[in-house]
Write a structure and sequence with these properties.
By secondary structure, the protein is mainly alpha-helical. The protein has helices at residues 43-59, 61-65, 70-85, 88-106, 116-128, 133-152, 179-189, 195-204, 208-212, 237-243, 266-281, 303-318, 322-325, 350-359; strands at 10-13, 20-29, 32-40, 219-220, 225-228, 231-234, 248-251, 260-263.
Length: 374
């Protein structure tokens, strides 16, 4: 074999064991000479490996000699990209997915050695260990987003997640409450300081975070309308420190369609009217405390506090399953209503929407709704 040209690498056969060795010079990096060595049983195998290294070196020579593990890359990606450019809740979800589903199984793998076959074994391991299809789907989505950034930064030539099959997640059908069950739930809500939150969530389809962010200035009880202009973001301590935000933050809704005006049914108007009377009795006059559903200190309500003080006790007394009311949140509290007015996903809208229509024709002798005659 003739002498190889500059930049083609060096190939020779070791006398000690007969293995073929190939070396590729990558210039100087960090003040030191950088080179990559590959091995093979035949000369052709080494030539093939050197050609692959040269293609990768054209994209980014640092990635060829990089020894960063997947865990180190994910930590950097979360800190320098997700925490800076994404919402705090997104960081919290991505961090949890990598910590629970990826790092314990493939975190020690070198980033440049990550391939489709290794990721396929990773998904098989998750399945055997009892992780749900939804958890596996979350793990693939987060890792794909992370490695897509790695491709843009030229740390890897392609995204190996593209070789994975997406797990099929079966969505459970939501069975809405019957009108009689709803009246029982509404009656129990009247006995709780924060029970009006549940009534308002069912009758309007608002997310819990949107309800917690409501001020009295956003409600017109006379006209029977409510304006959604902001939502609450509740972060874990780790996510708050990483993003430089507080544990509880107000922010605009995620999409333009989320900013909307919602028509209030009489039941919802009655719930807000009752809430106003409770606020005055608690010393939180709307002119002084603009928050509709404050905590006992007059500040924004946390989801965890609402769960323990309101939703769990009411659910236990009425024996109501949360999926009968709405879809569960990450904090497993009263979930977001399935039918959300002004949102794009209307796949499950028939449940609560049908219930709201039924309630227009249901009379309760103790309800005392505006416009109802006893």
């Amino acid at each position: 074999m003739g002498k190889r040209g500059k930049g083609e690498g060096t190939i020779f056969q070791r006398e000690s064991d007969g293995r073929w060795v190939g070396r590729l010079s990558l210039g100087r990096q960090g003040g030191k000479r950088a080179q990559k060595t590959v091995y093979g049983k035949s000369q052709a195998e080494v030539i093939e490996k050197l050609d692959a290294l040269k293609q990768q070196a054209k994209l980014n020579s640092k990635s060829v000699v990089s020894k960063d593990s997947l865990a180190a890359y994910l930590d950097t990606w979360l800190a320098d990209d997700v925490a800076v450019n994404r919402a705090g809740k997104t960081y919290e979800e991505y961090e949890a997915a990598t910590r629970l589903f990826a790092l314990p199984f493939i975190g020690a793998v070198k980033l440049t050695n990550l391939d489709g076959e290794r990721l396929q074994k990773w998904q098989a391991t998750l399945k055997r260990k009892g992780f749900t299809d939804n958890q596996r789907l979350r793990s693939i989505r987060v890792l794909r987003n992370a490695l897509n950034k790695g491709v843009k930064l030229k740390k890897i030539p392609f995204n190996p997640c593209n070789a994975l099959d997406i797990p099929k997640v079966d969505r459970r059908e939501v069975c809405p409450l019957e009108p009689e069950q709803c009246w029982e739930l509404f009656d129990e809500c009247k006995t709780n300081r924060l029970g009006d939150v549940i009534t308002l969530a069912i009758m309007t389809g608002l997310r819990l975070r949107e309800i917690f962010a409501l001020d009295w200035s956003a409600v017109n009880l006379r006209e029977g309308v409510l304006s959604v202009r902001k939502t609450m973001e509740e972060l874990s301590k780790k996510a708050a420190e990483a993003t430089g935000k507080g544990r509880l933050n107000e922010k605009p809704p995620k999409t333009k369609k989320s900013k909307r005006v919602v028509t209030l049914e009489p039941i919802a108007v009655k719930a807000l009217t009752d809430r106003m009377e409770k606020a005055k009795a608690e010393g939180f006059d709307p002119s002084e405390v603009p928050i509709i559903f404050p905590n006992t200190f007059g500040r924004r309500l946390r989801g965890s506090s609402f769960n323990s003080q309101c939703w769990y006790p009411i659910r236990k007394k009425t024996r109501t399953r949360r999926r009968e009311v709405s879809r569960p949140t990450a904090h497993s509290g009263v979930p977001d209503a399935v039918c959300r007015r002004g949102h794009e996903d209307h796949s499950a809208a028939t449940g609560p929407l049908q219930f709201r229509n039924d309630c227009r024709h249901v009379r309760s002798p103790d309800a005392g709704l505006p416009g109802q005659s006893n």
